[in-house]
Design a protein that fits this description.
heterodimer; A: 792 residues; Aldehyde Oxidoreductase, domain 3; Aldehyde Oxidoreductase, domain 4; seven-stranded mixed sheet; 23% strand; B: 191 residues; Ubiquitin-like (UB roll); DNA polymerase, domain 1; five-stranded mixed sheet; 7 helices; 37% helix
Chain lengths: 792, 191
Amino acid sequence: MAARDIHGPEAPWKEFQVVGKSHRKIDGMAKATGEAVYADDIQLPGMLHAKTLRSPHAHAKIVSIDTSRALALKGVHAVITGADLPIKYGVIPWTPDETALATDRVRFIGDEVAAVAAIDEDTANAALELIDVEYEVLHAYFDPREALERSEPTIHESRKNNNVSKHVELEFGDVDGAAETADLVVKGEYQFHGSTHGAIEPHCAVAKVSPEGVLTLWSATQISHYVHRALARVLEWEPQKIRVIQPCIGGAFGGKSDPFSLEFCVAKLAEITGRPVKMLWTREEVFYAHRGRHPMQLAYRTSATKDGKITGVDAKILIDGGSYSSFGLVTTYYSGQLLTGPYDFPSYRFNSTRVFTNKPPCGPKRGHGSVQPRFAFECQLDEVAEQLGIDPIEIRRKNFHGEHTQTVNGQRITSSGYMECLDKVERGSAWRERHRQLPTGQGLGVAGSMYISGTNYPIYPNEMPQAGIQLKADRSGLVTVFSGANDIGQGSNSVVRYIVAEELGMDPTDVRVLAADSDLCPVDLGAYSSRVTFMVGNAAVDAARKLRAKLVAAVAEHWEVEEKRVRLIMGRAIDLEDTEKVLSTREAIQLAEAKFDTLGSTGAYNTPTLGGDYRGGTIGASPAYSFTAHIVEAHVDEETGRITVPKVWCAHDCGRALNPRLVAGQIEGSVYMGIAEALMEDHKVNRFGLHSGPSLLDYRMPTAIDTPDIETYIVESVDPEGPYGAKEAGEGPLHSAIPALANAIHDAVGIRLRELPFTPAKVLAALAEKRMSEGAAAGGAAAKAMAKKETH
Amino acid sequence: MRGIELDVNGDRLETAAPDHWTLLEVLRYKLGLTGSKQGCDKGDCGACTVLVDGQPVLSCLTLAAQAVGKEITTVEGLRPMHLQSGGVGADPIQDAFDRCGALQCGFCQPGMMLSARALVAANASPSREEIQKALSGNLCRCTGYTQILEAVETAIAERVGAEAPRPAWVEDREHVREGELEARTPAKEAK
């Protein structure tokens, strides 16, 4: 880590002028007026429209493809198949197992087989009907356990004898010893289902090739840099001949992280036809593209002393990866590596196996890989508390790992506001007066979590910075920021504006941001792993301080005073010791341009060396961690099994909130998404491998009526290495919503739901089971339930 | 393909489109009004909502021919119409959405804002439940709806000069700033 990478959490001057205030977003009004341009809003002269032919089989060999009838259709300009784009790629360089179009095998219903460019979408769709494909159907896997146990056929040829995508087993301390000596051991098996991102904008890409031979791709991607790299690899073009631009993007949540088939297809079709080509996926196709939450089967064993101290956690996890690797290598590590806080446990083991199945490929969805284990563990913790007669919040306080410490798996923890998070939700929900005291059918549950603010692991090994920023100061008084970061609605362009305005003492509206255009902007690794605010923010501070030094030096020279007397604030340069001396930012820039020539600066950020000294030790290592606590109120109708969530309290430690309103928006969006997947959403296929409902009607996402009332608390622990002390806010606050809900259901009606989603049928089944066991216990429990009712 | 004349945002616009094209397709791909969004193309998400004679309508389920002779308002019309009627800045709904953080990715918001606008035109002081109901045909995936509801309530409150509701995190931060965190009264009673 270079000196440039840490700037300290303090304001550049005495106090913050811009940071910490709820400024408008840089693109808010453009979006509010309909001016903002998204990928499908781009129309180029002579543009063709492309569509994709998809596999009707879950697993099959392609015997032959005949495109001649399609090519003969009037208005069709090109048809491509796997033979045109045979080079394999994958977002993780160690696991390239995807092709833009199937070369010899299809691996799920919806896998891409061929693409057509035509004069319009109707013609392209008609041409798809004319492509003749002969398949030889293979045995398809839909059950991950079968995929684990059966090795013939394999879904990927690269896996010779099995369908295992990745296996990781790591042990820290003596887990079995801890279980043997524990006062209490709680065991449980949990099932986490699949869910998908559901960004309202479907994937879309537009490509053109200039007469000079430059390929420009506009794509709804959240990681333009990896798309750039993958295009160069698959098309076998030199990367400097490729320009990738991310226009405004209509939501992502991890679902636009991989390089996708359509990006390669439009590029190839534009190359072949000499015309711009657009491909817009239908909503149905987006469901097939998926890359959503991995279904997991999790077995946990938690050991504790009688006073509630956790002594060991043992996890065995089977991960259903779907048909391709995607980020699966990281997912498999994250399923274990990210559980080791905010609690201190002296021993920990996880054994995670990701297998391939013939289903839409899974990938990173908000809270990548760690939402599922967090659900299982926080439910276990609730059981430990119950069995030991300890308040569930107290047991979390008791096991808190503290600040500036190290986890059992070697992750460095710096700031942590977890205890304050617990305090806030405890007080906000009136926990002490209401937990275990509400009428039957109503309950409160608590859970906590931790998440990374970026990752040390840069996907492909390199020594270059993870994030870069370039500034240009214009003599008009405008400062332009060139940022490689992908603003996916979370506000990363706004954040760099605030930071640069803060450092240069400018009105934020005089700072414009141009982002995610590979011809113009320095590389940033992309919007994933909650890395953008932390890393790009630090790069912005770095660049702005260098420019500030020039402005201050020029003004000081002009005034013939020491530099320390010059302060840039509110669009002016002032002399701290002489109120008569005032210049505008514009004048300061002009003085500096005269003194130093054309004005600009660059800034960068790279992570410090972190992580445990073992294979995989850097995966999950982050320069800072965010912390969250949730309390959920659940109402359970014992007649119908229906669960409603009237209210959620969520406190999230994001370090310093650079813009509290945007932080609140991230927290609320996370809470919504967590409750949504726990209660309503289910991404699954039927027994033939066909998606059970690839539409926004059948895949039930909550409306404004279904979403709980959310009470948000922002906790600011101020991180020593974040930009002004900031950490992430976009993913952490999803995690503990789900176990807090499960624990609330237990408080409401005394059942432990270990299998997601929490449907009425599962509630009724658990209630029936509970009544059976209570009946066996000869009415004792019933009397207790009556007693609970009578207290109200 | 047939000629079609549409009354959009106060202008009479002529174009030609295939008979089966929807109002959304004609707006986006013939008239260049790309502010109305396509999220599902089958009436599930509401991103394509426009106003037809003041009523929110799913333009992806409306044939362009059905909209002939009617007044169509798209998101692009809000600010110019606000300026024409003597206002400053943007339409109060747009401004409130911007200030309240309701625009994250922004993709659902043109439809969401038009649904909100139809509501406030019909009901000067809707309750939170009425607002939720009016917006329930518009899916948003970013915000959890919270800041959207705050934006609509803010626009409504400001129209009558009332104080906009303040979310818990604003109150909480002010208490932190004033060093009153510990003295803060615990939680309101739940409903």
